[in-house]
């Protein structure tokens, strides 16, 4: 019977599948993520620019005007939250009760703050993805905003952009290879490696 007893095993790492490593960590696939991030970045920058200026990137006036610096800051956000609350009733509501509580008690009383947060968040995510700077972080916050829009009942293009942004998060190592990340990431490094641009202490000690 002792031969069938389960023995504790030391912790180990599960190796990354070659196909995943090829798509998400091989610089030969950086061109693919360049296309994806430019598209997703354009969508975010376009949405943020409209909220910031009241005009599209092509100069067309947008219904409702700007969300910020407009003299009626917070009105558009309050309207968005109010419409979302209307979707929280019925047998199968599009907006779940807990998220309706969030909209009612946090978003509506602070609509101006959320207007600025959403506007500048969209602009920064868009710019970060387009220039390829901190691509993984920009994509992560893009997914976060996409999730909140969908929880508020706004579908539109959000599922598509959100899904693509998730892939960009997975490809954070090469997503901005054809962009600023090619130079920024080696300088910043990661919490588990430190900066790759600074020489290691051990190397200095042996030199």
Automatic annotation (TrEMBL):
Bilayer-crossing regions: 124-144, 150-172
Localization: Membrane
One of the record's GO cellular component terms: membrane
Domain of life: Bacteria
UniProtKB keywords: Membrane, Transmembrane, Transmembrane helix
Membrane topology reported for the UniProt record: Multi-pass membrane protein
Pfam families found in the cross-reference section: DoxX
Protein name (database record): DoxX family protein
Origin species: Reticulibacter mediterranei
């Amino acid at each position: 019977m002792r031969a069938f007893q389960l023995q504790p095993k030391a912790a180990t790492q599960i190796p990354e599948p070659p196909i995943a490593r090829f798509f998400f960590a091989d610089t030969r696939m950086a061109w693919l993520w360049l296309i994806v991030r430019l598209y997703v970045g354009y969508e975010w920058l376009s949405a943020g620019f409209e909220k910031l200026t009241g005009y599209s990137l092509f100069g067309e006036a947008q219904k409702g005007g700007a969300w910020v610096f407009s003299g009626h800051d917070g009105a558009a956000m309050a309207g968005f939250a109010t419409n979302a609350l209307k979707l929280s009733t019925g047998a199968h509501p599009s907006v779940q009760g807990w998220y309706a509580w969030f909209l009612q008690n946090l978003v509506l009383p602070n609509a101006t703050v959320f207007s600025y947060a959403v506007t500048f968040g969209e602009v920064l995510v868009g710019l970060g993805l387009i220039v390829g700077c901190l691509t993984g972080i920009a994509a992560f916050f893009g997914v976060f905003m996409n999730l909140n829009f969908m929880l508020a009942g706004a579908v539109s293009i959000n599922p598509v952009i959100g899904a693509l942004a998730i892939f960009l998060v997975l490809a954070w190592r090469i997503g901005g290879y054809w962009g600023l990340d090619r130079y920024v990431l080696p300088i910043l490094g990661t919490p588990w490696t430190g900066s790759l641009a600074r020489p290691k202490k051990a190397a200095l000690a042996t030199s």
